[in-house]
Amino acid sequence: MSFTAVLLDLDGTLVNTIADLTDALNATLAELGRDLLSEDTTASLVGKGTRALVLRALAIQDSEPDDNLLDQALASFREHYRHVSGTRATLYPGVTDGLDAFRQMGLKLAVVTNKPTEFTLPLLASSGLAPYFDVVVCGDTCAESKPHPMPLLHACAQLDIAPQQAVMIGDSIYDAQAARAAGITALAVPYGYNEGKGVQNLEVDDIVLSIDAAAHWVSTRGTSQVPG
Q1: Which domain does 195 fall in, by range?
Q2: What is the DSSP secondary-structure string of 75-115?
Q3: 3-state SS of 144-176?
Q4: Is residue 27 one of the residues assigned to a domain?
Q5: What CATH number corresponds to the domain at position 200?
Q6: Is the Cβ–Cβ distance between 39 and 202 less than 8 Å?
Q7: Is 100 domain-assigned?
Q8: Which residues contact 227 (CB under 8 A, 6 or more apart)?
Q9: CATH no. for residue 47?
Q10: Within this chain, do residues 61 and 170 fall inside the same structural domain, yes or no?
Q11: What is residue 185's three-state secondary structure?
Q12: pLDDT digit string (tens) for 5-15?
């Protein structure tokens, strides 16, 4: 079956957001009297959405933060991140060339991220990526988020394609697990976060060095344009 659509993760795949996330986390931790984090440490905490990110940051100094502390930290982080999101974020090399190539192949495109809608849509707009995508599935779009297959299957339904017609590109184990569970071809990029671990042992169909390289990979496997 030919590919008709590409699903892409956001943070660590299309956009390097670690500087902004670290700034927001550190502003929150400073308010709570906690030690600040390096960008490398923040990168090791990213992957399962905002709540997990803040919980993991708190757990570095408090192995079992209570619900009140977590709620306070979440509210603080969201407020700080609203102000800094996109200010220091950068596109990874090959992203726009790759997305242009997918479009030239007639493929539909979707973002599937664990990032909440309130942060995803502004980031796509500020980074100039919003016009590329037919569908955006965020961490709060479905009842489940990655690694559950639901967000990927929802994206396929919105694109009116079968899962077997899609390719998922991401930087983490959660992208790989979600794609496998959904029956979707999975590609991994090695430059992202993946909780500070390499992608060599992920159960994916291939590792590609950039989104541009992913477009070449897809083009050599066959594509088919979907009307509409």
Answers
A1: 5-16+89-221
A2: HHHHHHHHHHTTTS-EEPTTHHHHHHHHHHTT-EEEEE-SS
A3: CCCCCCHHHHHHHHHHCCCHHHEEEEECCHHHH
A4: yes
A5: 3.40.50.1000
A6: no
A7: yes
A8: none
A9: 1.10.150.240
A10: no
A11: strand
A12: 999 999 999 99
| Tokens (6 digits) for 71 | 């709620």
What the block records as the tokens of 145 is 């988020």
Cα–Cα distance list, 167 to 115, 130, 189 (Å) = 20, 19, 13
Counting the structural domains of the chain, the total is 2
> How distant, in Å, are the alpha carbons of 31, 77, 144, 152, 181 from that of 185?
43, 34, 20, 11, 10
**Residue 93 and residue 69 share a domain:** no
Which tens digits make up the pLDDT trace of 120-158?
A: 999 999 999 999 999 999 999 999 999 999 999 999 999
Residues with a catalytic annotation lie at 9
Instruction: Tell me which of 68, 84, 100 is where a domain ends.
Output: 84
Check: CB of residue 159 under 8 Å from CB of residue 134. yes
- CA dist 156 and 213 (Å) reads 23
Place of tokens 């569908």: 135
Are both 191 and 111 inside the same structural domain? Answer: yes
